[in-house]
Amino acid sequence: MHTCTADPDAAETSGPLIRGNDFGCLTPPALGGWTPRRTVSVVIPAYRCADTLPLTLASLAAQSYPSDLMEVVVVDDGEEASLRLPDLVPENTRIIRPLPDGWGIANAYHSGVLAAQGEVVHRIDSDLVLSREHVEAQMRWHHLADYLVILGHLRFNEWEPGSLSAREVHAAVAAGAVGGLFGGDEGTAQWTEAVWDGTGDLRRAGPDVFRLHVGATASLPREMYLRAGGMDTSLPRGSDTEIGYRLAQAGAVFVADRESSCRHLGVSTVMRRQDEVQRYTKPFMAERVPHRQYRSSRGPGRQYLVPRVETVVGAEGRSLEAVRATVDGLLGSWMSDLSVTLVGPWGLLTDERRSPLDDPLLDLRLVRESYRGESRVRFVEEAAGTAFPAPFRFECPAGWVPEPETLGRLVKFADERTLGLVAVILDERGELVTARLERTAAVSRARLLTGPGADLDEAVHQISGMVWEDGRSWGILPAGDECSTAGTALAVQAEQWRRRAEKWERRAQRWKERARGRHLERLDPVPARSLRRAVGKGLRMVGMTGTRRQRSGG
């Protein structure tokens, strides 16, 4: 069992090492039984919320978190500056205008974070009524570790404009009686609550836990927000999920806190227009978030703004033939959702007069020219510390060639086991030669929690697990030997089509049995045609039909 300890007074440290998303090693203090020290900026994007914003601010004015450690930044996102602070607001509350080059909730929130002065930023929607301990419940976690994203507990209640006053809300929150504002109605749960229930409040959640970051109420260290790149202000909708994805790749742990409760005044747009919202956001998410929920229906060969895998190949000191063999092998992968980063001293390649054939940088120059027009290849002097924001990085030395299915198999292998690192041994003779598949989220967290000189791979192993594998079994061979793997690739295809053929054969058999039971005279033609098509295509894919003709003709 993974164990760790945390000191609530150690706010200056990043915190203990957490494996996966299992934050159970952290023990937050009981509400009201601790002494807060960290400052928080509550950021409220505000647009057409004249009826609800005064109620949200009234509930903030009754919070248990010390007022001298909390500020409230309201971002007026209207076409013109029109908001005025009501009478009942927290002590340190101000209204600002958003950055001028954008509009929408993402731009408003980002503007508020940039203006915030707190160590932690806590987003609150402008139509919430918060429980008295809402902010405190989230802030206690931020005293334990610096890479947590805290999600509040949300319920939706029916509400009519004018049915509640700011004074009523303030009094109810201060008395710990928010439920009384809604006649004791516990409200409608958000879809995320079912995931909380099934994962121990996210402790058992997997790498796609970022999907639970759906706005309304969430907090995180301001530094981590900036390190993840901040909001994508070009997104009118879905920006909370998108930055949740990037926060995960930056090493974040997502914590669900039921004691940080609040009520949403009325139903959300997603509830009212779910199909339209999903139709709108999916194309935006597909480009930015490499997840099956958004890309599962897209055809093979597609490329996206953020690839699923960044592959890295070093070109310095290597021959054109060695580099080209590896890069072409990667570009020929059946998993096309990838990019190739070629690392080398490209700045040395100038246009000065030289002897073309005797150029000391000839191979480097030829490598650059070989991929000048390839959109998936980029040239860098030094690889970044991680593949962020891509979820995986595959490093392969020049001169080694992966089979077409290798990369997809490795990613599937790592995903099924939530591994942080798969190290692949290519050659043990002399100096060890390896390739490696890294999970960005695990490496980012390891880099965050380890100092100079620390064993980064060991930290990744503790965070997400590491295994050693044999390169030949994964189809990574020296250039020149890869031709011997052609039969292996064909055999894989043959096996895939054989399974499809068997599936259709079983389906056809069920139809036959059903037909006999009903005294039918013939088999339904659709499964039979599908069976013949699947078998025939499978045979053609692996070149078996031609072979049979030759044999029969011999």
Automatic annotation (TrEMBL):
A GO MF label: transferase activity
Keywords: Transferase
Domain Glycosyltransferase 2-like stretches: 41-163
Protein name: GT2 family glycosyltransferase
Source organism of this protein record: Planomonospora venezuelensis
Pfam family, one: Glycos_transf_2
CDD domains: Glyco_tranf_GTA_type
